[in-house]
Design goal:
Layout lengths: L1 E12 L2 E13 L4 E5 L6 H8 L7 E6 L2 E2 L5 H10 L1 E5 L10 H12 L4 H11 L15 H13 L5 E5 L7 H18 L3 E4 L3 H4 L4 E6 L2 E7 L3
Parallel strand pairs: 3-8, 3-9, 6-7, 7-8
Antiparallel strand pairs: 1-2, 1-4, 4-5, 9-10
Amino acid sequence: MITLEGVTKTYRMGRIEVPALQGIDLHVGQGDFIAIMGASGSGKSTLMNILGCLDVPSSGRYLLDGTDVAKLGDDDLAKIRNRKIGFVFQSFNLIPRTSALHNVEMPLIYAGEGGRTQRAREALGSVGLADRVHHQPTELSGGQQQRAAIARALVTNPAILLADEPTGNLDSASSVEIMRLLSNLNAEQGRTIVLITHEQDIARFAKRVVELRDGRIVRDERTAP
């Protein structure tokens, strides 16, 4: 599903080159659930941006579902982001003053796909919000807002679900609720999930933990069931 081979990323600040990633080799198979951890400056955010096709490597290869992402132009990257990747963010990024249903429909509207309302209803039902389809974000709890955001990420049936600190704005009970939902999506639907987090308790929900330090992978291990 995901293969990174010798991926590097270097930023230029004037005449100074700052290496953010230094030779990352990583494989994520179909149906895996991986947590990527690391302190500030470890390269975690840069790796997330590359995995999400928001940035491209300076060198090396990134294969997503068989596509060599490093060779794509901006238009093709936008298509990959819309169809192959479902994004879940810390801040939910829901559109205010519109319903949960319409929020979930948005990726399908951008893609010009039909059957949007039915597919959005099904996605909301899959995350336990069948009775909240007409509620606006302000009428939903934090945990429900994140569930709506997950439904929006799932509605295009993406190859990978990329969750960037999805519990960062939630209380402890809501955080557990969201992580159990992600675990169920992985276990019951076979969803491939890459989770970005700095919290050990959250990372334990994943099947595998990858830790970055100074732009390199220093740990890659399976977690206990």
